[in-house]
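2.7 Reproducibility. Because tokenized structures are sensitive to small changes in the input, we list the exact sequence used for 5'-nucleotidase SurE, including any N-terminal residues retained from the expression construct. No trimming or masking was applied before prediction.
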Amino acid sequence: MRILITNDDGINASGLKVLHQIATEIAGPDGEVWTVAPAFEQSGVAHCISYTHPFMVSEMGRRRYAAEGSPADCVMVGLHDVMKDNRPDLVLSGVNRGNNSAENALYSGTLGGALEAALQGLPAMALSQYYGPENRDLDDPFEAARQHGADVVRRVLKARLANPSAYQLFYNINFPPVSAKSVKGTRATPQGLRENTAFSVEPQLSPSGRRFFWIRGGDQRAPVAANSDAGVNLDGYISVTPMRADLTAPDALEALRGVLE
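Resulting structure tokens (single pass, no recycling of outputs):
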């Protein structure tokens, strides 16, 4: 199997090394793992693409490239340049440092890379490691993802879910904020929502008196539906959420037609 990997934490991120290990195990001894990842951190860029300005790509080693762009840019470079003569069988993005459960999924560059692969017609998964008091001080905070990642990816691939939509399915996988031995299992879940918490901004003055803003995240342990991605993550389970790029709200569509038509 030929696998393309990317991330949003940057080419030198620890989580990308974990993902390379996972991908190498899945690809097998006769497979190939190719890396095209951002040269610098691109967290929070979602599905951003560098549409209005060009960017450079540097070869960092064998099958390893750094792009001055977003994760979605990296996937496009991988598919249409680096691997154009023999496209990958699978695209993996991550392993993100921090969760991309619930509303975080909408901001995530990690998911943006997987989403772009799905739009290009390829199987794709985004992998993220939830951080919390039970794992952030471990020698390897990524150990849940490192030890369980390959098995989860294999099981999702084996499922071969039917996809009646023209939009390709991709998968959001989040590993819980616990040690590897404390992982309780894996759950298929819907995307959740941390109610009454949201991203915000915090203004600060620079020494020159200019006003700047820092983006602040919401409480990552806020109450959330127990059967949702973040809910099962906080209960010690790996979550797998099937997604697609179609943003239509089907429950509202017929009601809106009744008003407009």
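The longest strand covers residues 90-97.
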